[in-house]
Structures are given as structure tokens and as C-alpha cells.
Specification:
The structure holds 2 protein chains of 2 kinds. By secondary structure, chain A is α/β, with parallel strands linked by helices. Helix content of chain A is 35%, strand content 25%. In chain B, 72% of the residues lie in helices and 0% in strands. The chains are: A alpha/beta, B mainly alpha.
Amino acid sequence: MSPSARPPIITVDNLAKRFGDVTAVESIGFSVAEGSTTALLGSNGAGKTTTLSILLGLLLPDEGTVTMFGEDMLRHRYRVLPWMNFSSPYVELPRRLSVAENLTVYAHLYGLDRVGERVRAVARDLDVESLLKRPTGDLSSGQRTRVALAKALLNEPRLLLMDEPTASLDPDTADWVRGFLEAYRQRTGATILLASHNMAEVERLCDQVLIMRAGAIVDRGPPADLIARYGRRNLEEVFLDIARYRGNGDGGGTDQGVLPVPQ
Amino acid sequence: MSGGRTTSRGPGALSWRRMWAMILRHLYVLRRSWPRLFELAYWPMVQMVLWGFITTFFLEHSSWVVRAAGVLISAVLLWDVLFRANLGVCLTFIEEMWARNLGQLFVSPLRPLELVSSLLILSSIRTLISVAPAAVVALPLFDVWVFDLGLPLIAFFTNLLVMGWCIGLVASALVLRFGLGAESLCWLGIFLFAPMSGIYYPIDTLPGWLQPLAWALPSAYVFEGMRAVLFDGLFRLDYFFSAVALNGLYLFLTSALFLYMLRRARVLGLLLQQGE
């Protein structure tokens, strides 16, 4: 069964978040099928991080519902949180703790059994065993990203949310991270939702793309479909068409690919 | 070379412009941070009030200390319990903000009440580590053995510990709401209660209008109770139960405030925006 045919693990309906006069997210809705990898694409300020933060429960929406694993995330997030995890280069782990100490703390927070064993296993998977005794603050960005990923995989999440998983990484490390995520999804059947600015990464990893602009989802679909529909060579060109479109209203278009396709 | 005009007069010359730029950089911070502005005026005012009351009392009761040796040292040690308990809560919480770790913590299954409980436990450990060595050192230096207070010491310690937790929870809630610009509240906030706690002088030294406020603080009952033990050898159960009742009420209210601020932080998106 293709990922898109599976039941949704995330269902978002009519979600809205405003900060004073600024609308961060306006009436968005989408679903993410179990076992799929979905990308939130959009320029800076498009609403990707706001959407991720709401899904994680770090931010409360003004309107709308979020259902995850069949639970109302806004009411029963503690039933859902043990099944998911999160990784972002912008949310750090305590720098003064060693890598092993950080992983141990989070293994306890997730209530894992045989903590030491699990920490060593995840460190081996992420190739950070040699870093276990080093202070997290002393690591390079590539090492820190792998450690953050190790923390995110401690509980073998069925749902992994990621904010720009390869930001500020060199091409070699970024490629390694992408390969790891692909392998993880294939091995465990996990669902991945990521926000990214890297179009090649999205083309490689994702079954589905949600393109955001000014707080709204302005188009969606599998990468190949979007490229074909816009008559472009790759997703980056599609992204630029949408980002540079000057349509009526802030939303820049509607939800079903009605942004004018360049001729 | 095209570009902006420069007023530099050589590599060694001091530039008023650059110094002004640095002053401006910090004025921008001060201007936007009421806690920082408040802090500038706060400390001198608290010191003046506290030492003013101490001076007033000792001018009228110069032989007071002679009657109970060690009363001031015991008061200092007990005050430190309150101070360290407050700091224990604040520093443990702020450490997570400094480390930009709150976002990670709140996407884990950690519940807010579990966070509060862990802050209180860590505060107790930090307080014991802080105060115990000073209490021991007071014996060879000043011939004061605070443990001579006996079992009442446990009552005093526990009440001050809980009151310190309450102040720490309020300060932490404010730092979460207003950002790390307000972190000095953790160190300074507690001194607001020092003049009214009657640490070094009886509550009746305070002006009449201030005394009801003082009696609303558990610390006032503790320090009056300490003096009752040292001067009269009497453990005042009425003071003890008053302090326990007030602490119970304040712990409930301040925990509720902290939990409310955590929820507000989720509404305002503060859990991912930490730092300056």
C-alpha cells in the first residue's frame, strides 16, 4: 500500500494562529498518512515553524483542531507525546552536559527501560559513540545535528517532526542525515514531517509537499506532480514561482494549485 | 573606495562615535526592559530600608543581643535558608532557559507539575548543600551551634524552605513571561521580603502600617519563633501553625501562577524564543 493510501496519523483542520495583528497561520488543513514523509515548504515567515510548534504542543492555536494518533492533541497531548519526537538545529540540548548525560536525561524523560543500553544503541546508529563523553557545547554543527537526531530517536518515535534537519550542515553530513532518515523510515515505518528550505532534500525524501505562503497552504501534492503541473524542471523552480507570485491578497492563491502556472 | 563617510583619525585614535554606539547598544536593551530599569533603583532602596530598621532597633535596645548569644548568627543562617531555597528554584529553571532547552523539555512527556516538583526537590538539595557548611563553620568561628535550637530548627528550616520555593516560583514565572532580562528578579526579589521578615529585629520595630503586611509572611513567624526559643526557651506553636497555613496557601497560589505562565508561554510562543 502506498503511503498516501494509508490512514492519516496527523489531521489538521482549520488551524489559525495570530500574534497581535500578525497572522502566522490562517485556516490551514492537511493530513499526513502513516509511514509517509511530508515536507512543509515555504519562505521565511510562511508559517512552517508555527505549524510545527502547534503540532508539537509548544504553541496553542487560536482556532482549529489537531488530531494525532486519533487523539485530540490540544486536549490529550500527554497521550501522544511518548510516540513522537522532535529535532531542530534551533532548539538546543544543554551545552554543559556531555552527550551521554543529555541522552540519559531524555531517555528517562521518555520512560525508557535499560537506559544505558538504549543510549549506546542510538549512539551507535547515529555514529556518535566517540562523542558520548564530550560536552555537547564543544561539538561542531554536524556533530550536534547527529546528537540531536540521536535524542529524537531515543524512543523510536512513530512520528518524527523536524525543523530544517540539514540546515548549516556540509553537503557530506547533510547527505548522511538524509540517508539515515530514509533508512529509519523504511526500517520502522515511521512517519516524518519536516520543514525545509532545501528543495533537493524534499524531492529526495518526501512523498508529499505542503507549500505555505503567508500563513496559508497554497499548494500541495507529490513533488513530481507539482513539478509537472507547474511545467518546471525541479521543485526549486516551483517554489520560486510560488514565492514570487504577486496575486491578490496575502494568501497568494488558493488551496488547489490555482496559482497561475507560468507559460 | 566608495561607501559611507568615515571619521576615523587613525588606528590608535579613540572614537566617541564607536563608544556612543556601544552605549546606545545597551540603552536599547535598558529601554525595552522594565526589570533592568527597576533593578537599578531597587537594591539601594532595599538596603536603606533594611539597615534603617536595624539601626532604629539597636539604638533603642543596645543590650538586646547580649541576652541571647548567637541570635544574629542564627538569624543570618536561617535567612540564608530562605534565600537559597528561592535561588534553588530560580536557578534550576533559568538554567533551562540559558540552555535553550525548554522547547526540548516540553515536547517530551514531562508534565508541568513534574517540572515544578523537580524544581522544589532540587531547591531542597541545593539549600542543604549551601547552608550546612556555614552552620558548621559558625561553631569554631563564633561559638554558635545553630543546632542548639533543637527540634524547632526543623520547623523553622521547613517553613523557610517552602516560603523560598514560593518566591522562587513567582520569580521564575516572571522570567518566563518577560524573558531573561528579568532574571535579576531571582536574586533581588527576595530582598523585598527582608525588611518585613523581622530577621534581625522584632516585627513591632516596623511602622504600624507595615506590621500587618509582615504578619502575612511565614518568615515573620519563623524569626519571631526563633527569638522566642533563644530568649525564652519557648517553641511557639501558634507561630508555627500560622507559618504552615500561610505557606500552604502561598505554595498553592504560586504553583498555580507558575503553571498559568507556562500555559501563557504556549499561547504567546515563548517556549521557543529564549535568550536576550
